[in-house]
């Protein structure tokens, strides 16, 4: 890790006991990531990359990169993960900037609950990044086997994610893509938050051009301001984590719909079903915590991850204010994502009408 890395040392809780007492994490399966088909040539097994990393096998491949299990021969760290972007990502300015951003952010922050990155000195023979190698499964895979998850387990896992992402906030970063698929539950009962490709500084203002860009994030967990291309700050991550906690406790994402963008846009005009209606076994305090994090207006959510974590760690102290009694059903909304044909026709007719009005205005002025 470079000298400028932001370090953190935990106090009061040993790293190895992060998930102690969490029943669903007592026997975590070692499930490698999925391997999507790709025409990209793979690194030869047995190759020593840049004289340091002995490539052993492919353990995962997504639409962005291939991940290899390797050995760090230089520092004798044992197993590491080598992430190599696909050729289509290398040639895509947006995709490659996300890859570079992940490496830059990962090399600067260091916390036991965040995926650890290792620096590679000297010139690389090709783009890649190196991280610790983790055995276990992602939170979405674990939650699938425990649906819904016991309340105490869900609150504990959410509390650890709060700590990890809160650390990022303390140093001026917003994750922007908190979801179960970006949380690793390890076989040694530890947890890591990963995937820093979308991590950025808070966006306190958005230009008109920025609002016309494609939203970043995962629709099922996006905050309303992400969908609407509004201001993005620490409270955006609080909403995303609230959506994750909602899913752990109820077995479904907020305002779940077959069309993920329909679900995302419904979130901008209304509230999800009260968690206790989907899972009556949830305590009123847990429901209060979830709905506090899922407030549509950022100002109405927890002010910080620290405040969110305080309630998660002591739910019995949470006063029930009646968020569940003030939920509002979503309103229908026209959007290019949810109703593309109807929205396109509406925009087309509006454009034609505007041109006709402009024509008559110009004609009237010319006649004078």
State the gist of this model.
The chain has 368 residues and is of the alpha+beta class. 35% of the residues lie in helices and 12% in strands. It is globular.
Judging from the principal axes of the Cα atoms, what is the shape? globular
Q: Order of SSEs, N→C? A: EEEEHHEEEHHEEHHHHHHHH
- Spatial gap, N to C terminus: 75 Å
CATH class of the largest domain: Mainly Alpha
Which spans of ≥5 residues are poorly predicted at pLDDT below 50?
9-14
Q: Average pLDDT, to the nearest integer?
A: 88
Strand content: 5-15%
What integer value in Å does the Rg equal? 23 Å
Taken together, the total number of domains comes to 3
Give the beta-strand count. 9
Percent of residues in helices: 25-40%
What is the CATH architecture descriptor of the largest domain? Orthogonal Bundle
Number of helical segments with 4 or more residues: 12
Strand order of the largest sheet: 1-2-3-4-6-5
CATH topology of the largest domain: Transferase(Phosphotransferase), domain 1
Provide the structure class. alpha+beta
- Give the biggest beta sheet: 6 strands, antiparallel
Q: CATH H level of the largest domain: which superfamily?
A: Transferase(Phosphotransferase) domain 1
